[in-house]
Specification:
The protein has one domain: Alpha-Beta Barrel (TIM Barrel), CATH 3.20.20. By secondary structure, it is an alpha/beta fold. It has 12 helices and 12 strands. The protein is globular. Helix content is 40%, strand content 16%. The structure holds flavin mononucleotide. Residues 19-22, 44-45, 106, 108, 133, 170, 197-198, 215, 217-218, 222, 244-247, 266-269 line the site of flavin mononucleotide. Flavin mononucleotide (FMN) binds next to strand 4, strand 5 and helix 9.
Length: 329
């Protein structure tokens, strides 16, 4: 059975990629993930704010107790980050030496600036590709969406023209015309997209009357939004597509591939079950393929994409009307 897949020009032995997460802080765990069958690892992100803080520190002649960057909110202290930029590059080199699978680094920021020079340093340190995470919450009512997207495209252009390795962009689902924006990303140098970032969603504590920031691990239901957009974008998108979010069971993997993903990125399921989950997903996918008489991923990739529909938007609206009308009380 052939589980090989091509992602960002990398030939991977299977579609199981460890998504950006704290796993790469721990070399032993990374070894276990590779031994369990991971075909590539995405390191945790190096943040624009973190790089800015380091650059500020290195430019100051004295020894400031605390860098003033960034100025407007309570960001982590420079020393709170698990890996500072230099440690990050050293960790990347160690992972490259220790493992024989591609290591993808993650750069996380919003504005064009000095931090993008880290893309070159990642390439020099042996990254096989870079995932660019443009995480932001557009909340200023005076800034139109096209201005925000133009800035994002500029970051993508700047980073992808600075390196020879492929650059993938990790996207949020909240764009007014996501399929169009994906095409623009490709025109501006993105070799692939990762669908999706999981945006942090704070809750309220009603006793303390405070906002509560917490990180919820995903469930399979989080996959549904990915399936919809994978199936809409994959038929026309010229680059690679990773599905990130809600992949927990072999059926989730099969669905993501059928919708058009080249790989699935796993984080929550590995945090819940440990590295062994990769071999369980691998075996489960093979069992399903065997029972469906499928010999390779190429046979199924994109088979359930929206290309089958005359118009995905019309079909979606028709489904929507039908399910609402079918409800009886
Ligand atoms: C503890 C934790 C840390 C994460 N760190 C990063 C990160 O540094 N950069 C990033 O792009 N995504 C990060 N993510 C998001 C994941 O890469 C992934 O997109 C998301 O968790 C959805 O996948 P999942 O459903 O398999 O968890 C993190 C997620 C978790 C749970």
């Amino acid at each position: 059975m052939d589980l090989t897949t091509s992602y960002l020009g990398l030939e991977l032995k299977n579609p199981f990629v460890v998504g950006a997460s704290p796993f790469c802080h721990n070399l032993t765990l990374c070894r276990e993930l590779a031994d369990a069958g991971a075909s590539a690892l995405v390191m945790n992100s190096l943040f624009e704010e973190q790089i800015g803080a380091e650059q500020e520190l290195s430019q100051s002649s004295g020894h400031p107790a605390k860098p003033s960057y960034p100025p407007k909110a309570e960001y982590p202290e420079y020393t709170d980050y698990h890996l500072n930029p230099e440690h990050y590059l050293r960790q990347l080199k160690r992972l490259r030496e220790m493992l024989d699978i591609p290591i993808i680094t993650s750069l996380n920021g919003r504005h064009v600036g000095g931090w993008v020079s880290y893309a070159q340093r990642m390439e020099d340190a042996g990254a096989s590709a870079i995932e660019l995470n443009l995480y932001q919450l557009p909340a200023d009512p005076s800034v139109p969406g096209d201005e925000i997207e133009a800035d994002m495209l500029e970051v993508v252009r700047t980073v992808s023209s600075a390196v020879k390795i492929p650059v993938a962009v990790k996207l949020s689902p909240f764009h007014s015309s996501l399929a169009h924006f994906a095409a623009r990303l490709s025109e501006n140098g993105a070799a692939g997209i990762t669908l999706f970032n999981r945006l942090h969603q704070p809750d309220f504590d009603l006793t303390k009357m405070e906002k509560v920031a917490h990180l919820r691990l995903s469930e399979s239901t989080d996959l549904l939004m990915r399936l919809r957009w994978l199936s809409i974008i994959s038929p026309d998108f010229p680059g690679s597509i990773a599905c990130s979010g809600g992949v927990h069971h072999p059926a989730d993997v099969a669905k993501a591939l059928l919708a058009g993903a080249d790989v699935v990125q796993l984080v929550s399921s590995l945090l819940k079950h440990g590295p062994v989950r990769i071999s369980e997903l691998h075996n489960g996918l093979e069992v399903w393929m065997q029972s469906a008489k499928i010999k390779s991923l190429d046979e199924i990739r994109g088979k359930m994409s929206a290309k089958r529909a005359v118009s995905p938007a019309e079909e979606e609206r028709a489904d929507y009307l039908r399910i609402l009308q079918a409800w009886r009380v």
